[in-house]
Every structure is written in structure tokens, then in C-alpha cells.
Amino acid sequence: MTTEIAPSAPAAPVAASKKARVPGGTARDVRLLSGLGHLALLVWAIVVIAPLLWIVLGSFKTNTEIFLGGAFSLPASISPDTYIQAWNEANVGRYFLNSLLVVSLSTTGTMLFGAMAAYVLARYSFPGNRAIYYMFVSGLAFPVFLALVPLFLVVNNLGLLNTYTGLILVYIAYSLPFTVFFLAAFFKTLPQSVAEAAMLDGASHTRLFFRIMMPMARPALVSITIFNIIGQWNQYLLPVALMQGENADQKWVLTQGIANINTSAGYQAEWGALFAAVTLSVLPMIVVYAFFQRQIQQGLTAGAVK
Amino acid sequence: MRHGKYPFIVGFLAAPVAIYVTFVIAPYAQAFYVAMTSWRGVDANPSFVGLQNFERLLQDDVFWTALRHHGVLLLAMPLITIVLALFFAFMLNVGGGGRGGAMTGVWGSKFYRVVFFFPQILAVVIVAVIFGRVYAPDESGLLNATLGAVGLEPLLFMADPGIALWCVIAVLVWQAVGFYVVLFSAGMASIPKDIYEAATIDGANRVNMFFRVTLPLLWDTLQVAWVYLGIAAFDAFALVWVLSVDRGGPDRATTVLGVEIYRNAFEYSQFGYASAMGVALFFLTITFAALTLRVSRRETIEL
Question: In what residue span(s) does the ABC transmembrane type-1 domain sit (chain A) (predicted)?
């Protein structure tokens, strides 16, 4: 999956092949092209990094500095004021903890229920197995917008509108199709012999699943857990549709909170605090990404590579 | 061995199936019915109106505007993203040329790959807020400050209906490219090295190598990328909702179906009409996916 091409079997000596293959001026063309390629990579790296750095820079500025001091100027002083303002007054702290609560529960639930369903569907034959499997997988083909209104009504009828329980259950439900699809494929590849040996030793089906199959499926579980954490952490449409009503702003998740700070920053012109709020929500992602970038890349591309 | 199999199966499936049917299957099924009612608001009684909502949809200019925007997104966003990602991935994996016979990436490949991928893990909302400031119409914005520094007039970006949609596309591309660089890199890594060696010996330069070796062998991955990006082009809700002026403006210049569905459902309480739009969106997505898989199917090259 990773992308390094290891140096291997030597072919013709480079010098010799170079002389043989490039007649006339093409060598210069190739070098030029490769130079342009390097340049393009560098430019794109700047395009990716610059906005993020610029936001961090802006988070230390006062409003006057932001509007009159020039976009690239350094802040006059480094003070944590904007951050304190963002964390306390703009409630970034609260939104962050709300997101943490919701996503930790919903990802745990997704993995538990997803693994249970995938395991049974992949390794036990019973009438209706295929029907249930395709019911789960069909969810991959539907846009969430199709379900938006009826989903709102269902959650409302259950009395779960504007509750964490409702949001968590909905996150789990909408994460199941991909989780089941991916894990079922993985559980199918686990050897039958281990399962049989365990059963002969008197392990129950449940014990076999938790003690033997789950540990063996670890690599797949890690990938798909990361996929779900990031997907649920970044979700916007579902919370914005389901967390409305009285005092809903107390329960907003981070994405909703930031979107709201963005809107009100426009009226109150508190851009420094907005920049600080954005920095506070990007920073944890950078830290996590720095440590787990291999696993994150694998987790997110898992679906496409399969 | 068989002892207690069925209680176990039922026990393991009950909770996931119950949650899934309640919150996913039931709403999807109901959506088709709600789309044929004139349901307005939670407390109102739905009355069946047949295909009236769909007739109204066909005469709704906003619907057609949104559809046209999806068309532009669908053509531009996957194309730009794939071309950029392919080029970068090629540079990162094969661009370093032959070293000891094996193809290597250019210097710093690892760093570039890590940096390029990062936007992918950011929430679309965060990205939208960041670019809201980057695109600020005065010189407090990053882009206008840059334009000003080289002596150009400031642009209105999101406030200019002529380019607002393209600004949205640029952000989508900005976020997506890294993902496809990693995806294509994985595909390129699985191309056997002897093919490159053979091509090198036959005198292929890097341009030839790209078009004659890498591209054909990457076809399956490209197809996956196209479907993914196409489906993303039918969404774009969060980005447009947060980044654009007046949620889909100015004057609906950036609106997409998701935005209109949300607006009709939760601002105008037109549940029936919003669902009819959802049904239209569903058929568009399905048609796109089916068409892509059909048209782009060709002989896979067996390795």
C-alpha cells in the first residue's frame, strides 16, 4: 500500500543506458521537464501550506492589524488574548469537548456493531444472509440528501431531535454500510482452521469472536476506525439538520460551532478570534497526523484501493 | 460445532440491523413517498399529490441553475484534480529517473506526499472558513494581498458571480489532490519494475514512460478516482453553505442541489418539495456512476 519503490534488481548501468537512449537534444528537454516538475511540486506545497500558516499568523493579530497592517505583516505582539477569547467566549472549548464525546461514542458503537454484523455475515451461512448483506451495502449508493427530510422526521418522532443519543445513533447507522462492507471482506480472509480449533477447545461463538477473530482482524479494524473517526469528526450535514431546537447551540459539535463563529465574525468583526478558533481546530489534526500519517493515509484510501 | 448458532447470529445482528433499518433504510424508503406529498412542516398533515412536485421541479429555475453547477463541477473538478494528482504522483514515484535500474521519486518525495495529503483530513467546514478569509474581497485576504503586492487590482472572488463557482472548485481541488496523489502512488507502486526497466532500455524518456506505461496500467485506479470525484461533485453542500455569500449566492451563482434541499426542508418547511429534489439527486448520482463504469470499461491489462 505504501508507495516507496524499493531499489531492486539492477538493470543496465545507468550511464550506459543514458548514452544509448537519448539522441540529440532530448536530454536537455528531459532535464528541463524534470526541473519544471520540481518547481510544480514546490509551488503546490506552498499552496497547501500558505493558507494554514497565514491563519496561524492572523490568530495573533488584532482587528486593526488584520485590516490595516497588511496581510503578511507580523503581529506587533504575541499574546494569547484571541485564543482565550475563542476558547471561552466563542465556546470553542465546549464545541471541541462535544465533538470528542459524540465521536468517541459513535465510533466505538460503529466499530462494535459493524464488526459484529460483518463477522456474522461473512462467516456464517443462514437463510437471509445475502439479503441482509446487500441491504447494508446498498447504503453506499444513496446520497444522504435523499433521506434528509424523512430522517429528520424519524428522529423527531423518536423524541431524539437535539440529543446526543440521536446524533450518535445516526452517525453509527450511516457509517455501517462502509464498515460492514470493508470488514466482511476482511473476515472472509481469516483462516477457518483457527476457528475450528477454538471451537474444539470448547469456545463459544461469542468468545471466538471477541478473543480470537477480533485480534486477528486488527489491521483492518485500525484502518476502518481511523476512517470512521475522521469522517464523523468532520461531519456537518447531519448535526446541522438534527441538532436544532431550544438551546441547541450548547450541544453543537465543532464543525457547527466554527461555522457559526464564522458567520458572527462577519457581523462583529472579530477576525482574530475566528483565526484562533480555526487554529485551535486544525492544530490537533496536525499533531495526530504527524504521529499517524501512515495509518491515516492507509485508512482513508482503504476503500478506494480495495 | 453447530451448537447455539442461531441464537448467536440473531444476537449479533439484532442491534446493527435495528439501528440501520430505523435510521437509514426507513428514511430512504419514505423519501420516495414524501416526495409525492405536499407536506409542509412537522405538524402538518401530508396530502398525496402524485408527481406534482416533480412538475414544479422541472419549471424551477433554481433547480436548473443548481443542476448546471453540478454539470460544471462534474466536468472541471475531477479533470483538474486527476491531471494534477497524476502529474504529482508520477514525479513523486518515477520522476527521479532510473537509479541503479529502479525508478525512484524526486528528492523530498516523502515530504511532499505528507504535505499534499494533509488537507484531506480537515473538515470541509474548517476549509471553507479558511478560504473565506483567503478569498476576502479586500486586501486583508491572502489572495488579494498577493495580487496587491504584484500591483494587480483586487478581485471580489466569492462576491463576483462570474468567478464564485470557480473559486469553489479551486477549494475542492485544493482539498482533494493529495488524496489522489496517494491513491495513484499506490497504483504506480504496484506496476512491476521490470516494465520500467524494459522501457528504459528501449529508450523511453519520462514523457513516453508516463503515457505508454504508467497511464494504461493505472486505468482501474483512474476509473475509481473518477467515480469518487464525480460523486463528490454532486455534493459540495458543506463548502458552498459555509463559504459562499448568502449560502449559494451571490444571487444563486454557486448554489447546488444539497443547499436547495436543505433550504427547502429546514427554512421553508417544504418537506415534499425538498424530498422531490432528493429523489432527483439520487437518480442523477446513480446514472452518473452507471454511465462512468459503462463508458470507461475497457480491457484490463493483466500483469
Answer: 96-292
Cα A137 to Cα A122: distance, rounded to the nearest angstrom: 13
Domains of chain A in sequence order: 92-250+296-305 (1.10.3720.10)
The residue in chain B having the minimum alpha-carbon distance to the alpha carbon of residue A124 is: B9
Q: Is the Cα dihedral B188, B192, B196, B197 positive or negative?
A: positive
Residues of B in contact with A57 (CB under 8 A): none
Which residues in chain B have their CB less than 8 angstroms from residue A139's CB?
Answer: 20, 24-25
- Identify which of B171, B183, B209 has the alpha carbon closest to the alpha carbon of residue B113: B183
Q: What is the DSSP letter of A137?
A: H
For B240, half-sphere exposure in the C-beta direction (CA atoms, 13 angstrom radius) is 30
List the end-to-end C-alpha distance of chain B, in Å, as a whole number: 42
* Nearest CB to B9; choose among A9, A120, A285: A120
Spell out which residues of chain A touch residue B239, defining contact as CB-CB under 8 Å. Answer: none
Q: Which residue of A has its CA nearest to B223?
A: A304
The amino acid at A202: G
Is the distance from CB of B160 to CB of B244 less than 8 angstroms? Answer: no
What is the distance of C-alpha A206 from the center of its chain?
Answer: 30
**3-state DSSP assignment of residue B99:** strand
Residue B193 burial by Cβ neighbours in a 10 Å radius (0-12, 13-18, 19+): middle
The CATH number of domain B60-295 is 3.20.20.70: no
Sign of CA dihedral A279, A281, A282, A284: positive
Instruction: Give the pLDDT of chain A (306 residues) as one tens digit per residue.
Output: 334 343 343 333 444 444 344 443 456 666 676 778 888 899 999 999 999 998 888 888 777 777 776 777 777 777 788 888 888 878 888 899 999 999 999 999 999 999 999 999 988 888 888 999 999 988 888 888 888 889 998 998 898 988 999 999 999 999 999 999 989 988 888 888 888 888 888 888 888 888 888 888 888 898 889 889 888 999 999 999 898 877 778 889 999 988 888 888 777 767 888 888 899 888 888 888 888 888 888 888 876 654
Contact by Cβ (8 Å): B40, B271: yes
Q: Which residue has the cell 454484523?
A: A117
Residues in chain A within 8 Å Cβ distance of B293: none
CB contact under 8 A, B15 and A113: yes
How many H helices and E strands in chain B?
A: 15, 2
